[in-house]
Amino acid sequence: MATNGDFSFAGGNASVKNNSPSEKGRNGLAKIHTQKKKAEAGEVCHDDSGPTVKAQTIDELHSLQRKKSAPTTPITGTPKAAFASALSEEERQKQQLQSISASLASLTRETGPKVVKGDPARKAETPKVSSHSHVTDPFHYAPTFSTSDSALKFTHILYNLSPAELYEQAIKYEKGSYLTASGALATLSGAKTGRSPRDKRVVKDETTTDELWWGKGSPNIEMDEHTFLVNRERAVDYLCSLDKVFVNDQFLNWDPNHRIKVRIVSARAYHSLFMHNMCIRPTPEELENFGTPDFTIYNAGQFPCNRYTHYMTSSTSIDLNLARREMVILGTQYAGEMKKGLFSVMHYLMPKRQILSLHSGCNMGKGGDVALFFGLSGTGKTTLSTDHNRYLIGDDEHCWSENGVSNIEGGCYAKCIDLSGEKEPDIWNAIKFGTVLENVVFEEHSRDVDYSDKSVTENTRAAYPIEYIPNAKIPCVGPHPKNVILLACDAFGVLPPVSKLNLAQTMYHFISGYTALVAGTEDGIKEPTATFSACFGAAFIMLHPTKYAAMLAEKMKKHGATGWLVNTGWSGGRYGSGNRIKLAYTRKIIDAIHSGTLLEANYVKTEVFGLEIPTEVEGVPSEILNPVNTWSDKAAYKDTLLKLGGLFKKNFEVFASYKIGTDNKLTEEILAAGPNF
């Protein structure tokens, strides 16, 4: 035992000697020696402290924490890339900011606002500009224009931020943004929790008057050029009045030969992260060579439109100008307006290149066989196109070109209501860091999301990159489709579980876009209601539906694709008396379509609709394949069949007068393919 004030430590790192009065510290405590003395070389503390940081201030220390990003993709191959490599980083940054400033230019000035990269919260990033000189710093750009309040300030540009940076911006500055237990970002879209189709306008000019579909049944509501410019000015002035705006430069269409460059200017981190997920994310090299966008969105959704402006019917307006390649959003913060607005643009631009734009899901077998899935809400499009034995090319928007199929988007936008890991494991597992959760409700303490809670809206959504799906095919492209599957949830119970369609029938049912919903009547009785949406996406198409249908038939004929009508609805009676066709049976039918065995089956023809139905499908009871066999009341079946046929005919009246080609032969073929009675 140590005595008389002698202490020793097993590690040998320190020793304390207290044998003389001079070696005592305060209050008689022994002194600890940390400096080596020659006489006590082995008995003093060892100094194992590390070197100090290379910073003189706390701000300098924080700056060391964040490493500057640099492109890692080598620039090779193209002349364009060779030109880009000749630019210095300073010149490239200046060109990029000039392009963004031009995008934000007011119509009353020839130049855009002063812009600077970075967060205004970091004061050091706001440059000082003397009245006698232009700014030469590459990270900001100051054009010259007349003095005004707006001319005296810089607009900070938060350019192509990462998800982590956007999380920080949203949580810090946007009320209603929270980190959930799964790592996803929960956000609120404000008063609007869905699209506003009645507030969507398209500029009608000399070109679009003849090209677009106008009038009865069309989703295109007209506005004039002047009104668009008034709204654009309002949106741009609002965005330029802010301390900061978010700018995303991204792509649409995974086919590199036909991709579109888009720029999204928005005021919310939520919108920027949403579009980061939903559009195709450029590589650093692609971003260096981005240049001028093909299309620009100005999302000033927090600011209302002026109701006294011509054509405005509310404080919300979503305006498309195809000549200017611009879209303006006022009075709605619902992010889906951007996604579907760009889809409308693709429905206009792609057919001009002889490329068919499609509102469909798409997957591919391991042998390279591609299937397209069309269907309205509730038909099972997402469920059936998500198959663990097949690769997912995309869940919603596609193009069919001379090269095959390609996904338009870089992400998925999934419904979340009543979501569970058991029912939709892929979507459930995709809700993690980087995912945007719209309008969901979560437990205040644990931040676990309650997907059954409809307190905010039933239209809760998750937006995530497509790479979050394990069997996604990257890049999202595939060969020409082998099967085109049209899904309908027939609550009337008279359509067969599966029918093989000829080309004319495929066009007819594609233009019809039928499903039947179950709606409540005043006395509480639930009754089926027929719903028709042209091309299975009437809200987004720009041209007349027959133009898309003719392109579909032409491509199917050229590449040998087969059309199928699959009913995922009722059998043995209408809703209330019959039964929903089991999902297991529908999956067996889809499997038989993919494998090609259904092409080899024997077929019989139904009355009224003239559909060819197989007599047997492996794993499916043969008696349900022909719906007449499942109805005990044959007279009721016939009445219901005729009623549905009449609804199809009435819906098609708006398309019947549209002439396709010089001889109108194709229109007659399509009409003949409908119900006949």
Automatic annotation (TrEMBL):
InterPro entries: PEP_carboxykinase_ATP (IPR001272), PEP_carboxykinase_C (IPR013035), PEP_carboxykinase_N (IPR008210), PEPCK_ATP_CS (IPR015994). One of its GO terms (biological process) is gluconeogenesis. Residues 1-51, 108-135 are annotated as: Disordered. It catalyses: oxaloacetate + ATP = phosphoenolpyruvate + ADP + CO2. Residues 37-49, 116-126 have a biased composition (Basic and acidic residues). Its EC number is 4.1.1.49. It is found in: Cytoplasm. Keywords: ATP-binding, Cytoplasm, Decarboxylase, Gluconeogenesis, Lyase, Nucleotide-binding. One of its GO terms (cellular component) is cytosol. Belongs to the phosphoenolpyruvate carboxykinase (ATP) family. This is phosphoenolpyruvate carboxykinase (ATP). The lineage of its organism: Eukaryota, Viridiplantae, Streptophyta, Embryophyta, Tracheophyta.
